[in-house]
Design brief:
One of its GO terms (molecular function) is isomerase activity. The two termini are 27 Å apart. It contains 14 helices and 20 strands. The strands form five sheets. It has an eight-stranded parallel β-sheet. By secondary structure, the protein is α/β, with parallel strands linked by helices. Helices cover 26% and strands 16% of the residues. It has three domains: 356 residues, Glycosidases (TIM Barrel, Alpha-Beta Barrel); 60 residues, Oligo-1,6-glucosidase, Domain 2 (Oligo-1,6-glucosidase, domain 2, Alpha-Beta Complex); 58 residues, Sandwich (Immunoglobulin-like), CATH 2.60.40. Helix 6 packs parallel to helix 7 and helix 11 runs parallel beside helix 14. The longest helix has 17 residues. Bound molecules: 1-O-alpha-D-glucopyranosyl-D-fructose. The site of 1-O-alpha-D-glucopyranosyl-D-fructose has 14 residues, from loops.
Length: 521
């Protein structure tokens, strides 16, 4: 537990760089776009940015396929751009955390290219998972593992002699070969990457697939019913116990920079297994994704929160809360879309921001953006192709942010050809309009973030559940005493006693209507 650390009650804002703001008119967002809009983030009141990958990449998975982890891709503005962003953000009191991708590299990474060229049985292949195929001519992959994006997790290579040869493992896209963390170069190089960015003033890292990396030695088959974009705790592709030694190694490096934070993407459901990642010598924070998986339903919300609190208690860690990200559909749509979806999303934002711990807001959440139904021909997520067009993938929640004006591209770019098309009906949702309107979703977010930060009622690290009418939830912050009530039922409920600080929508005859939350002191 680190109650004094800056990140222990921070509001992180996730910038998906492709979609945030485009400074150079190529239709893709970039780092100078972030720089140009730091005022928006300062107004919103966030403590830190989590920047999705901006390092050198062929962009097969939009940056999660890293070809050089210690340089910035020209698409995002190169090294000079991040060297402008870091001090500018710091001047405004905003920390910068970067995404790092230790589980795999890009197939364009020099190590992988060298491995292909060197051929079977060579030292160069040891940095990845190269295996011979099964069957008489090795025409079957080494095991039945599937890629998270669909299809086999193995791709067969053409050997230097021109013949089909070994297979390599990729838990994600073909262009994302898994690294073999048993090879000492892999950790050494990762350490270099961590120090490289920490020396340049970065305040911490979001660690991609933090429960991946280690694989069981014999690579045993998985169960047959593995679904695209999800996996269970007993899936041999993830959460192998030797991953913890890797996290201890990472922590030893990061501990040389006392204010730096690590946030692991840990898709592990079992609390005991999940908590192992939060041991004092492993990660500082671990994402808990339960709130992204549930309906707007009192029992489910309470269960998700209670479960997260119990999970962090095991290692006396700090909780994290998130309603959506670049992988998971936006909550406005998940909660039913339209006005109802937005009302519920605002109510859930109040639930999340009333809780102790670190909160992650995904860019566009503060504007109440919904998912976008995109036509087939514009889809880019590898999941669409790899699933044989059965899973549309994650593009729906990655559409660029509307900044200003009345028509696409809404100030996101000077080019009308944005990398994903923007819906014309977002004219009412632009940052410009919402900043000027005290009743907007943005003004609401700004207000609740400010209250959370300024009011002593939000101090303390526990919560107590209070009696609530059916369909509603009420909890109180242990310590500060702030009370949060949320009505997920069908009828208005009386407000609990206390001074009303804010509600996510108007009260009705002094009562809290359905799909609405309130904070009381
Ligand atoms: O996601 C890892 C991951 O496991 C997810 O694909 C997850 O299974 C799914 O989204 C659940 O809905 C990370 C990144 O967040 C994602 O964007 C990358 O595509 C992936 O790693 C590969 O680097």
């Amino acid at each position: 537990m680190s109650p004094g650390a800056w990140w222990s009650n921070a509001v992180f804002y996730q910038v998906y760089p492709r979609s945030f703001a485009d400074s150079d008119g190529d239709g893709v967002g970039d780092i100078d776009g972030v720089l140009a809009h730091l005022d928006h983030l300062e107004r919103l009141g966030v403590d830190a940015i989590w920047l999705n990958p901006v390092t050198v990449s062929p962009m097969a998975d939009h940056g999660y396929d890293v070809a050089d982890p210690r340089d910035i891709d020209p698409l995002f503005g190169g090294m000079a751009a991040i060297e402008r962003l870091i001090p500018a953000a710091h001047e405004r009191g905003i920390k910068i955390t970067m995404d790092v991708v230790p589980n795999h590299t890009s197939s364009a990474h020099p190590w992988f290219q060298a491995a292909l060229a060197a051929g079977p049985g060579t030292e160069a292949r040891e940095r990845y998972y190269f295996r011979d195929g099964r069957g008489p001519d090795g025409e079957l992959p080494p095991n039945n593992w599937t890629s998270v994006f669909g299809g086999s997790a193995w791709t067969r290579v053409v050997e230097p002699d021109g013949n089909p040869g070994q297979y390599y493992l990729h838990l994600f896209d073909t262009e994302q070969p898994d690294l073999n963390w048993e090879h000492p170069d892999v950790f050494d190089d990762f350490e270099k990457t961590l120090r490289f960015w920490l020396e340049r003033g970065v305040d911490g890292f979001r660690i991609d697939v933090a429960h991946g990396m280690a694989k069981p030695a014999d690579l045993p088959d998985a169960k047959d019913d593995v679904k695209v974009l999800s996996h269970s705790d007993d899936d041999p592709r993830f959460n192998h116990p030797s991953v913890h030694e890797i996290h201890r190694g990472i922590r030893r490096v990061v501990d040389d920079y006392p204010d730096a934070v690590t946030i692991g993407e840990v898709w592990v459901l079992d609390n005991l297994l999940w908590a192992e990642y939060l041991r004092p010598d492993e990660l500082h924070l671990g994402f808990n994704f339960r709130l992204t998986k549930i309906d707007f339903d009192a029992d489910q919300i309470q269960h998700a929160i209670q479960n997260s609190m119990e999970a962090i208690a095991i290692e006396n860690a700090i909780p994290t809360w998130t309603l959506s990200n670049h992988d998971v559909g936006r909550e406005v749509t998940r909660y039913g879309g339209g006005e109802v979806g937005l009302r519920r999303a605002k109510a859930m934002a109040m639930v999340m921001l009333a809780l102790p711990g670190a909160v992650f807001v995904y860019n566009g959440e503060e504007l109440g953006l919904p998912d976008v139904e995109l036509p087939d021909e514009v889809l880019q997520d590898p999941t669409w192709e790899r699933s044989g067009h059965t899973e549309r993938g994650r593009d729906k929640c990655r559409v660029p942010i509307p900044w200003s004006g009345d028509a696409p591209p809404f100030g996101f770019s000077s080019s009308p050809e944005t990398w994903l098309p923007m819906p014309p009906e977002w004219a009412t949702l632009t940052v410009e309009r919402q900043t000027a309107d005290p009743e907007s979703t943005f003004s609401f977010f700004r207000h609740i973030i400010k209250l959370r930060k300024e009011r002593a009622e939000f101090d303390g690290d526990g919560i107590d559940w209070l009696d609530a009418p059916r369909g509603a939830l009420i909890f109180r912050r242990r310590g500060g005493g702030a009370v949060c009530a949320v009505n997920a039922g069908r009828r208005p409920i009386p407000l609990p006693p206390g001074e009303l600080l804010v509600s996510s929508g108007p009260l009705v005859d002094g009562e809290l209507p359905p799909d609405t939350a309130a904070w009381l002191a």
